[in-house]
Design a protein that fits this description.
About 40% of the residues lie in helices and about 15% in strands. It is α/β, with parallel strands linked by helices and about 450 residues long. It has 3 domains: about 70 residues, Rossmann fold (3-Layer(aba) Sandwich), CATH 3.40.50.970; about 160 residues, 3-Layer(aba) Sandwich (Rossmann fold), CATH 3.40.50; about 190 residues, Thiamin diphosphate (ThDP)-binding fold, Pyr/PP domains (Rossmann fold, 3-Layer(aba) Sandwich).
Length: about 450
């Protein structure tokens, strides 16, 4: 009756590769087999299966599991197909690599790094969902391609959904653009208008090795010298920027309020390189991405989507997959609330999947306010300083909420107390208890 839905999977269909409702219980093994096959085929993604109560209540006899349906793999590109890409990158005056999720295959990180070193190319991780290159590497160029895209004469885009925002920056009119992706068409996106001279649907974890070998065979001495000089310049810039960010954060340690830069600096100092970080810092992502040092593949993830509330559940999944690893969520206060924290923290206690949550609590949905100011800089909201649906003060007591769900909870508002508070949270997690640090940061 009222608990039945006409189409239960409708709510998630737009975010899944495959949805299905079981119709006969004798086919459950075939259906499950198909669900896992679709989910694990490139490009990987979620599937959703609805199991009606009436079907589940029917008796089943002689159920036999069929052979596992193997996932579909993408091909490697042939040397002949890669030849024009390799020639362009070898001869480039200013090559640029933009990547989003190549690091989902952890072995591809080392190959991508070697390719960047070979051609002296900055690597921008735009709309990245995972670690694609060490953030300590001198050729990592941050999350914005704007400065480099204006200069680049050859652009290599790898596994990326949104390489740049056309209203902010566009490639040079004479730039050659090559796109290698598990899904270069992006058919599920109604509009996708980024230009490219060549698009290849490939498994980049396989193709990058062949591309690197082809490039190395085409480099002249003059090419190598030019790429090395560029790499040295980029390395100096990278070092200067990282040092400046650290100095800025340390200068803010003595302020009365905790700043996002100081918070991320303290987190960076507290975490080992094998810690898995789920990053959902939203408007504070520029601090997290530029200051948080992640060097090992598979140790940094974001949702890869546009909605909020992903990180807490993702931490539980990561802890189930790697119970020996420490897992940390970096979230805003709005993100924390959207993550169903009572359910997430209870689940962490019940299923022994403890993780540390650090809340960058600015007591507002600043992403909404920022968008408002961007599109209506002289609008009524700006003139009256009234932004409906933005203010989240007075903030809930997230520390007590955590404690009510059997987790360690602590509110932090003193910059000097932050390092020790992080240590206490990590110690609680190491002892088997989830932990929440409600860090009250400066309002933007």
């Amino acid at each position: 009756w009222i608990q039945d839905q006409t189409d239960q999977s409708m709510a998630v269909r737009g975010y899944c590769k495959w949805t299905y409702e079981l119709r006969r219980n004798e086919s459950i093994h075939h259906v499950m087999n198909r669900a896992f096959q679709v989910a694990s085929s490139e490009p990987g993604g979620p599937t959703y299966l609805t199991l009606p109560r009436e079907v589940l209540m029917e008796p089943v006899q002689n159920l036999r599991m069929p052979a596992v349906l193997q996932p579909v793999t993408l091909p490697d590109a042939s040397p002949e197909v890669l030849k024009p890409i390799a020639e362009a990158l070898a001869q480039a005056q200013y090559p640029l690599v933009i990547t989003g999720s190549t690091g989902r295959h952890t072995g591809a990180v080392a190959t991508l790094t070697s390719l960047a070193e070979c051609i002296g190319a900055p690597v921008v991780t735009a709309t990245a969902s995972c670690l694609n290159i060490s953030t300590a590497h001198p050729l990592w160029a941050g999350i914005s391609p704007n400065d480099h895209l204006k200069e680049a004469d050859v652009v290599l885009i790898l596994d990326c959904d949104v390489p740049y925002i056309p209203s902010n920056v566009t490639p040079r009119t004479d730039a050659r653009i090559f796109w290698l992706d598990s899904d270069p068409l992006k058919a599920t996106m109604p509009l996708f208008t980024f230009p490219a001279d060549l698009r290849l649907q490939v498994d980049t974890s396989k193709t990058l090795s062949g591309l690197l070998s082809t490039i190395e065979n085409k480099l002249t001495t003059e090419d190598r010298d030019r790429h090395n000089r560029r790499a040295e310049t980029l390395a100096e810039k990278h070092t200067d920027q990282r040092n400046a960010l650290r100095q800025t954060a340390q200068d803010q340690a003595s302020q009365s309020l905790i700043t996002p830069a100081w918070l991320i600096h303290c987190v960076d100092q507290a975490l080992g390189q094998d810690v898995i970080v789920m990053d959902e810092t939203v408007t504070n992502a520029r601090f997290a991405h530029s200051m948080l040092t992640r060097t090992q593949p598979g140790t940094w993830f974001t949702s890869g989507g546009a909605s909020l509330g992903w990180a807490l559940g993702a931490c539980i999944g990561a802890k189930l997959a790697a119970p020996e690893r420490t897992v940390v969520a970096l979230v805003g206060d709005g993100t924390f609330m959207f993550g169903c924290p009572t359910a997430a923290l209870w689940t962490a206690a019940e299923h022994k999947t403890p993780f540390l949550t650090v809340i960058l609590n600015n007591q507002m949905h600043f992403a909404t306010k920022r968008s408002w100011l961007m599109h209506y800089p002289e609008g009524t909201a700006k003139q009256t300083n009234q932004f409906p649906g933005v203010d989240l003060s007075p903030s809930p007591d997230f520390a007590r909420l955590a404690q009510s769900c059997h987790a360690y909870g602590e509110q932090v508002d003193d910059p000097r107390a932050l390092p020790e508070a992080l240590n206490r949270g990590l110690e609680a997690v190491a002892a088997g208890q989830a932990a929440v640090l409600d860090v009250r940061i400066q309002r933007p």
